[in-house]
Amino acid sequence: MQLIFANIPEFEEKKAELPDAAFLSYKPDIEGFKKYWQEFGSFKNILLIGNGGSVTGLMGIYGCFGAQSGKHVEFLSTVDPEYIANIKMRLPKHNTLVIAISKSGQTVSQIEALMHFLDYTLLFITAKDSTLAQIGGKAGATIAEHPNIGGRYTAFTEVSLIPAAICGIDISALYFGAKDFYAKYRQNNIAMKAAQILFALENRGIVDVFLPVYSHNLFYFSNLIVQLCHESFGKNGSGQTYFAHEAPESQHHTNQRFFGGRKNIAGFFLRAENFRQDAPTLMPAGMHGIPLRDGSLFDLNKIPLSFAMDAEFSGTWEDAKIHGIPVLALSLTILEPKEIGQFIAFWQTFAVYSSILRSVDPFDQPQVESSKLISWKTLRDGKNGHKNL
Q1: 92 shares its domain with 118
Q2: How many whole angstroms separate alpha carbon 187 and alpha carbon 173?
Q3: What is the value of pTM for the model shown?
Q4: Segment 304-358, tens digit of pLDDT
Q5: Same domain for 143 and 262?
Q6: Strands (E), 86-236
Q7: Residue 198 included in any domain
Q8: Domain region containing 148
Q9: Are residues 168 and 73 in the same domain?
Q10: CA–CA separation, 37 and 161 (whole Å)
C-alpha cells in the first residue's frame, strides 16, 4: 500500500500514547476455523444476520473474493418485514446456512429477525451464556465463542474468519497481511500519518471527508471504514463525518459537492493500482468516426479498462489539487488476500490513532448503546397498545 497527499498545510504533529489494543495481540485459530468448511462448506447460500462490526468486515472480504468462492452470501441487518419475506422466498432452507453474530447476544433487532429462520441450519458466534447463545442451545445451533473484542475490530477473529473459511477464502493470507501491519503499530506508519493529517485538518475546520472508492470490490469495505471512524472517534463533540461513494460514479453527483459546496471538506481517495482481470475496449471499425467530445470513438480503441479507471481517478485528483482541496490517496497494489489484510489493519489502527489524538476512547460507543436502550423501551412499553398485537 502507498499513501500520497496534496494541499496539506504544515502542521505540528501531536504525539500520543497508544493503548494496548486487544485486537492487536489476538491470535486466531486459523486451522480450527478452516474445519468449519468441513461441516458447512456444502451449503450454497449463506445468510448472515448481524449488525455493525458483526457483518461489516465480512461484507468487505466477501465483496473482494466472493465471486471466486461460488457461495451466495446475503446480509440481514434489518427487521423490514417485506425484505425478510423476500429472503425466505429466495433462500430455501435445504441449501442455506444462517449465521447469527453478536458479541453481547442482546441485539433486539437481530433476535427478532433470527426468529424467522429458526428452522434453517444455524451457526451462532456470540459470547458464552449470552441471550443469543441460550437461543442457540434450544434451537440446536452450532455455537462458536465470540472473543472479548468490540465488533468493529473483529475482522481477524472468529467473527469474519469463520464465515470466510466456509466460503473457501484464504483466511491465512488475510490474517498474516494484517499481522505484518500490526507489527508497525507503535512506529511511524502510513495509518498514523493519515490520522495526523486528518486530525490537523479537523482543527482547521475540515469536518467532512469524502471517500471516493475507485474499485468496485474495494467499495464493499465502505461500511466498515465509516463505522470504524464514526464509532471510534466521533465523540465528545469531535470527529469528522466520513461518507463513501463508489467512483467514478460519484463524479456524476458528489463531485459537485466536493468542488462546489462548502469549503470544509477533504478527499480521501481509495484505489487499486492493478486489477486481477483486465480487458481493452475494442471499437468496431464502423464506429471509429463517431464523434466523442473533441475527438472520436477511435480515441478509446484498445485502451485497457484499468487505464480508464486510472484516468478517472487522475481527473478528480488533479482537479482537487488545482482547487486547493486537501486530498489523500491510499493505493493498493492489487486486491489479493494479504494486501486486503493490510488494508483492513490500516483502517483499524487509523481509528485508534485518530481516537487517541482526540483524547477519546477508541473502543466504546456510548451514543450507540443509548439509542438501543430507547428502542427496546419503545418496543416493550408499546407492545400492549399496538393494534396488531
Answers
A1: yes
A2: 23
A3: 0.93
A4: 999 999 999 999 999 999 999 999 999 999 999 999 999 999 999 999 999 999 9
A5: no
A6: 96-102, 121-126, 142-145, 208-214
A7: yes
A8: 22-174
A9: yes
A10: 11
